[in-house]
Amino acid sequence: MRIVNLHHRAFVPTFRKLGHEVLSIGTTPDCDVVLSEPLSHKRFLELLAGRDLRPDLVFWCDACQLPWIFGLESLPAVVIGYSVDQYMNPWHVPWSAGFDALFVAQKDYLPFFATPETPRPAAWLPLFCDPAKCPAPAGERDIPVSFVGTVGGTANPDRAPFLDAFRRRAPLVATGGAYGPVYGRSRIVLNQSAAGELNFRVFEAMACGAALLTEDVGNGLRELFAPGEDLLVYRRGDPAEAAEKALSALADPDRLAALAASGRRRTLTGHTVAIRARRILATARRLAATGAVGRRLARLARIRAEVAKAYLFLATDQTLPLPPDQRQFFLEMAGGAG
Description:
The chain has helices at 12-17, 41-50, 92-95, 159-167, 180-183, 200-207, 221-224, 239-250, 253-270, 273-289, 292-298, 300-316, 324-337; strands spanning 2-7, 21-26, 33-34, 57-61, 78-83, 101-104, 122-124, 143-148, 173-175, 186-190, 211-215, 232-234. With 338 residues, the protein is an alpha/beta fold. Strands 3-2-1-4-5-6-7 form a 7-stranded parallel sheet. Strands 9-8-10-11-12 form a 5-stranded parallel sheet, sandwiched between helices.
């Protein structure tokens, strides 16, 4: 299969290992085509023609960025999207009208994507781990509790106070950078989210053989894992309970090791990037075989009206920290798309 991957490259190495030809386009240096400005539909087609590439699948993978590649709804290939941070990006809903199918990482948000205006199918596809980045358990686990991630920033203002309050009650190593080396030395990995979502940390920590201590939230957590058997949970926003759970678990090393082993086994057998990639590819084949592209192109005017709403969202949402020129850009795109 010839695949064009847009934005996040999480699936690119796996698609290639599975034998597919992949061209990655995005804003990060590891992409095959690195964008320094938005890519219009015309320029996108010219880019593909210049490489003599007629893709079978165009796959948009959410990187929590503004849309930079336009006209996906008009492409003569299967178009699939994967919305990861929909809780922060309501514009994903109308924008996804231009896809033939959409995967949604956070289960509780799936109903928002099931509207008459966006008739393409939407399905839950949880996040995952990449086993290549998760070292097998080896050596001493000399870090009682760790957290790896962004502590400051406006996206999650509750994180820093939560970690500070936890640290006053229980040992905690909080850092940034690569998670593998830290999780590989940790007995427990503490997780805190922005909006009760199942973030990558849920899967990565357990894949590295650490016991996960995470919020007891929705979005399918208890459908994927069993609290007390695969992981530990605490009330969201309650650092005192989280610290109590951590200290209790650390005091029972055998139970903690068994829980960590169960979580690792459950994650590596059911929630890897290869498992998710195979589902995406199977969906692409089914869509191609059942004429999904033709159905999308037949209702293009209606789809463009929905896509225009996404650009209008971005132009008028005052909670977004966008400069005036970007707001004007999306306002003009809304007019052009509609």
